[in-house]
Amino acid sequence: MNIVVCIKQVPDSAATVVAEGGQASWGDAPLVMNPWDEYAVETALLQYEAYGGDVTVISVGAEGATEAIKSALAMGCTQAYLVSDPELAAADSRVIAHVLAAAIKKVGDVDLALFGKQAIDSDMGVTAPQTARILGWPVLSLVSVVQELNPDDGTIKVERSIEEGRQVVESKLPAVVTVSKDIADPRYPSFMGIRKAARADIPVWTLADLEVDVPDPLVRWPEVVNPPVREITNEIISGASPDEIAESLADKIIGEKVL
Amino acid sequence: MDFALNDEHRMVQQMVRDFAQKEVAPTIKEYDRAHDMAPFVLPRMGELGILGINIPVRYGGQGMDYISLGLACEELEAVDSTLRVVMSVHMGLNSMGLLQWGTEEQKQRFLVPQARGDRVACYGLTEPGAGSDVAGMNSTARRDGDEYVINGEKMWISLATKAHHCMWIARTNPDVDPHEGLSAFQVELDRPGVTRGDIKGKMGVRAGSTGWIAMQDVRIPVENRIGKEGEGFRIAMSCLDNGRYTVAAGATGLIRASLEASVRYANERQAFGRVIGKLQLIQAKIADMVESYDAARLLYLRAGWMKNQGLRNTRETSIAKWFATDGSFEAASEAVQVHGAYGYSDEYDVERYLRNSKGAVIYEGTNEIHRLIQAGYALGYRKDTPLRKELPAYDPEFWQE
Predict the structure, then answer these.
(1) B336: burial class by Cβ within 10 Å (0-12, 13-18, 19+)?
(2) Shortest CA distance to B71 belongs to which of B318, B316, B246?
(3) Helix, strand or coil for residue A44?
(4) Cβ proximity of B189 and B163 under 8 Å
(5) Residues of chain A numbered 170-209 and touching chain B (CB < 8 Å)
(6) Predicted-complex ipTM score
(7) What is the pLDDT along chain B (401 residues), one digit of tens a residue?
(8) What per-residue confidence (pLDDT) applies to A30?
């Protein structure tokens, strides 16, 4: 089983992200693996443990931005590549999808490309389906259970968690799969994995290495602004009896259209 | 001089932080209130390899260095002191003692299962009537053929009712200077004649096990003696060099937890029309905690670095323990003050931090003892003499082979 996991490096979810100069800023908070992608890594490792093969991590990012990749290696992934190129500085999700599709092709003979359901920084959840479209592969999104995986027949059967309930879907491989957090709790890196990852030399692929011409980005983020500060006022409601206070409170709640 | 942690250290720190924050923090208040140790803590720490973090792979451990041990302790105590206490006794006082002083046969028999987390270890030095005055202990071990017969009682023993093994210090020769008349033994706690129990009513570390162990005519084979007969005092003191290191690192984590809780609260709580973080007297408390954290961290990392290099670190570990534990008590106390009346209730974590911080000022050498140690070195009254066996320097090849 040859599995690729696409991961994104994002600001730590504990970081305070604010808009500064029209752009998002998280100060000197560390960059970590997108938490949703941890579920994709776990899914890949479970299939790897069942069927063997390779689990390859691919991430697009600045040169040297290998923290998230090393975390995935420490969890047990077998190899990793960082795609880094100055031309990608203003990439949108479509551009990234072209890059990831080219990287998946370069890895070669891939059965399954796994993604987290979205990234916590941009929260769009479109990179995986865009990558699938470029590859011409089916996409199974919001997967919560991998019911069957048959490498010999080249089929996969999954359960999707959607608002209306659960949906069982079968597909041919290769396929792109995005996973939700119901699928399995991500494991912690093992100490042995940490040692291996710390010493790992992560190969860097440029766009030239991938032999891909990426399109110009269609989407820009010209300005990021902080949400407006809400004015909060306090009012103590008094009355002669608890009933009177409750009635007065109910009037206020209805008057303010809270209910 | 390189102050940077390497990738290995950063990942160890993150992994232990994730475990403590995700698995222990959500329920720690319940166990603290119930004076009970969460049953999953020891098995989970064993399963994740934390109980053998810095023991060589050949002895069942994970092969990380001594700095990794310190970083793990900082993360553990940032959630609750009871987690770090496990490392202090199981790893610092017992397993590292075996690594330093044990024979190859003893390492295979005791250290391997301990490092794997299959067996939990504790350390029996303090007695009901002998704390700082180690040489005044009453516990005895009498040689009888190929066995020793142990009698005595130990008090304030962390993991007393949870551990499988105890490194027990006892008097083997009453006729010589007490410093030359003690010996160390690794005792399996399921032997006939061993009784033990938990101590109730503690101020802090309530989600941990602290107790007493009594031995009445407990027979152990000579092969369970660690080091030579009469070497017990030196072994006990060298074990403290390792236990105190974990205490220092953990207390540093407690300073950080107090600081983070205070910063969070100071940026939320409003008084006099603004958040209290804008008030200079609150800022002073925050600044003191920052100062304390930075200095405590540098002190314990220096001791960890010296252990990695194989350098004797009795003085450096002592000052790290003294500074960090005083600092954690002050930081926790000021964190309660920053939280005002809310800090006085267990709705917030800081009252638990304060209760937990006091113990470390007392155990593993009271901070009065550490003052005397530092003065002794400065005045030239105290010098470290080479030990027959030193704690081995961290050698990645040997550790990970």
Answers:
(1) buried
(2) B246
(3) helix
(4) yes
(5) 188-192, 194-195, 197-198
(6) 0.90
(7) 889 999 999 999 999 999 999 999 999 999 999 999 999 999 999 999 999 999 999 999 999 999 999 999 999 999 999 999 999 999 999 999 999 999 999 999 999 999 999 999 999 999 998 887 787 899 999 999 999 999 999 999 999 999 999 999 999 999 999 889 999 999 999 999 999 999 999 999 999 999 999 999 999 999 999 999 999 999 999 999 999 999 999 999 999 999 999 999 999 999 999 999 999 999 999 999 999 999 999 999 999 999 999 999 999 999 999 999 999 999 999 999 999 999 999 999 999 999 999 999 999 999 999 999 999 999 999 999 999 999 999 999 999 98
(8) 81
Of A67, A188, A191, the CB nearest to B64: A191
3-state helix, strand, coil in chain B (%, to 5): 55, 15, 30
The DSSP symbol for B26 reads G
Candidate list B75, B153, B231, B364, residue with the active-site label: B364
Q: Peptide bond preceding A174: is omega within 30 degrees of 0, i.e. cis?
A: yes
DSSP A227: P
Residue A180: DSSP 8-state: -
Using CA atoms, how far apart are residues A18 and B383, in angstroms rounded to an integer?
55
The class level of CATH for A2-210 reads alpha beta
> What are the pLDDT digits (tens) for B112-137?
999 999 999 999 999 998 887 787 89
Domain boundaries, chain B: 7-119, 123-230, 234-400
State the nearest Cα–Cα gap between B69 and chain A, in angstroms.
12
How far is the C-alpha of B358 from the C-alpha of B311, rounded, in Å? 30
Q: Do B15 and A194 touch (CB under 8 A)?
A: yes
- Going by C-alpha positions, the residue among B128, B25, B147, B35 that lies closest to residue B78 is B25
Report CA-CA distances (Å) from B48 to A189, B53, B98.
Answer: 9, 9, 21
Strands B274-275 and B270-271, how do they pair?
Answer: antiparallel
pTM: 0.91
Q: Which of B5, B6, B8, B54 to mutate to test the interface with A (most CBs of A within 10 A)?
A: B8
Quickly count: other Cβ atoms within 10 Å of residue B58's Cβ: 16
Classified by CATH at the fold level, domain B123-230 comes out as Butyryl-CoA Dehydrogenase, subunit A; domain 2 (2.40.110)
Whether residue A43 contacts residue A57, with contact meaning beta carbons closer than 8 Å, is answered with: no
Which amino acid, A51?
Answer: Y
**Class at the top of the CATH hierarchy for domain B7-119:** mainly alpha
DSSP secondary structure code for residue B110 in this structure: I
Nearest to B50 by CA among B213, B246, B198, B191: B246
CATH of domain B234-400: 1.20.140.10
Quick check: helix, strand or coil at residue B182?
strand
Token look-up 């916590």 returns A120
Q: Is there a catalytic annotation at residue B364?
A: yes
DSSP symbols for B328-366:
HHHHHHHHHHHHGGGGGSTTSTHHHHHHHHHHHHHSSS-
**Strand pairing class (A112-116; A139-150):** unpaired
- Is there a contact between A191 and B7 if contact means CB atoms under 8 Å apart? no
